[in-house]
Amino acid sequence: MVCIAAFIILCLVGIVVAFISIFKKEVGKKYLAVFKKSWHCVFKKVRLQKCDTNFKDDVKNTILKKVILKHPKWVKPLSIIIEIISVLIVVITIWSIVIAIKSLLALWVFGTCNVSKPSACSLTSESCSIDAEEPHNIFEQIGQNIGEWGEIFGAIPDRLKSWNKEDFSELENLPILNNGSSYVDFMKADNAAFDIMDPGCVVCMTSYKNQLSSGFFNNHTAYLVIYPIQSKDGTYKFKNSEVASKYLIAVQLYAAKDEKGLESPKLFYTSKIISRLFTEKDEDGISFQTRLNNDLEKDEVVKLFSSWLKDFGATENEIKEIESTIDSDEVKTALEKNKSVVDNKIHAKSIPTLIYDGRKHNGLYKE
User: Fold this and answer.
1) Measured between alpha carbons, how far is 342 from 37 in angstroms, rounded to an integer?
2) Cis peptide preceding 352, ω within 30 of 0
3) Which of 102, 103, 222, 259 has the fewest CB atoms found within 10 Å of its own CB?
4) 132-175 pLDDT, tens per residue?
């Protein structure tokens, strides 16, 4: 282990030596001679051959030469300590390489280097992360790490596959994200795109604005998959995400029952609510989404959205009927279907997640 540990240290020191050797070439020559000897030893270890004992002794003698003269009794315990430190260096290095490989794979597959807590990864794209429950002990931590490897390998096919409309076939009445004059069922739409968003997610708001300004909705028929981010303990990441999501789904389910079918203007109510929520401000100049997340209570969210529906042309009776279905089984079932697709089929680790042009895109949509 000593020769392997020495090789690892020499690799790290080599960066500094390379700089010093520009001014003192003799330092570089001495380093290169030791490095070659170290590499020769490690190469033998890799082939399961015995390492040259003289190199191991050279390393130990270099470290202990002063101790031998002044404190000869310290040589044996210090030699043991060197062996232990060498083992630790090798183990830590191997562990670091494994973690690095895992992080790179997770970044490629999920768009985050931390599977269970995407928000802890500084390399993650701008997004609202879907964090797993924190482990309470070392055994849960080990189990979580093993599970993360399973998630990564299980999601690799998702990264390589070409996504299409059939992947969302179990979802019905998805709201369309533009204010056009006609509604198209996503199974029949050309160039369909799917926006997975949480009404309370600030990054979702920015992503939506970027899509608007870039003309994304002109080039794609985009459908909204509402996904309020929920923790394992049942709480929601954003204060009013649940009630806002239920209201939006209730509106769309009500509109889908209109006798005019796909020509009903009510099918664009959800899109108009999202547009106002993400792009407009109240009379005090405060973003409606900021009000949603910080100031409003559940009943105030319902009143606010209902007042918007009235602005969009809904009657009092229509608004009352929508409000009465917010907590219905039908709305809960639709929301559960959305969550099931996002969690189990798309394997999203952050919101927003966009699927368009046959590919899954994690995090903020950039112009």
Assistant:
1) 54
2) yes
3) 259
4) 666 667 776 777 777 878 878 877 887 778 888 888 888 888 99
Cα separation of 112 and 54, whole Å?
46
- Tokens 């199974």 sit on residue: 187
The values of phi and psi at residue 101, to 5°, are -65, -45
The encoded tokens of residue 78 equal 């210090």
Residue whose entry in the numeric block shows the structure tokens 């790179």: 104
**What's the rounded mean pLDDT across residues 308-315?**
92
Would you list the DSSP string of 12-36?
HHHHHHHHHTTT-HHHHHHHHHHHH
The SS3 assignment for 265 reads helix
End-to-end CA distance of the chain: 52
- What kind and span of H or E run contains 351? strand 350-351
Block residue for tokens 């954003």? 238
Find out whether 308 and 273 touch, Cβ atoms under 8 Å: yes
| Residues 159-168: b if buried by 16+ CB within 10 A, e if exposed | eeeebeeebb
Q: For 328-342, what is each residue's pLDDT tens digit?
A: 999 999 999 999 999
Q: From the CA atom positions of the chain, what is the Rg in Å? A: 30
Tokens 């969302």, residue located = 168
CB-based contacts of 68: which residues, under 8 Å, 6+ apart? 75
Q: Where are the alpha helices (DSSP H) in the chain?
A: 2-20, 25-46, 53-70, 75-110, 138-160, 202-214, 216-219, 241-256, 269-279, 288-294, 298-312, 316-324, 329-340
Q: Give the separation between CA 68 and CA 108, rounded to whole angstroms.
A: 52
Domains and CATH numbers, the chain: 2-103 (no CATH), 108-153 (no CATH), 162-362 (3.40.30.10)
Cβ–Cβ under 8 Å, residues 288 and 199: no
What per-residue confidence (pLDDT) applies to 113?
77
Given phi > 0 = left and psi -120 to 50 = alpha, else beta, which region is 71?
A: beta
Q: Can you tell me the distance from the alpha carbon of 115 to that of 121, in angstroms, rounded to the nearest whole number?
A: 9
b/e 102-113 (16+ beta carbons within 10 angstroms → b): bbebbbebbbbb
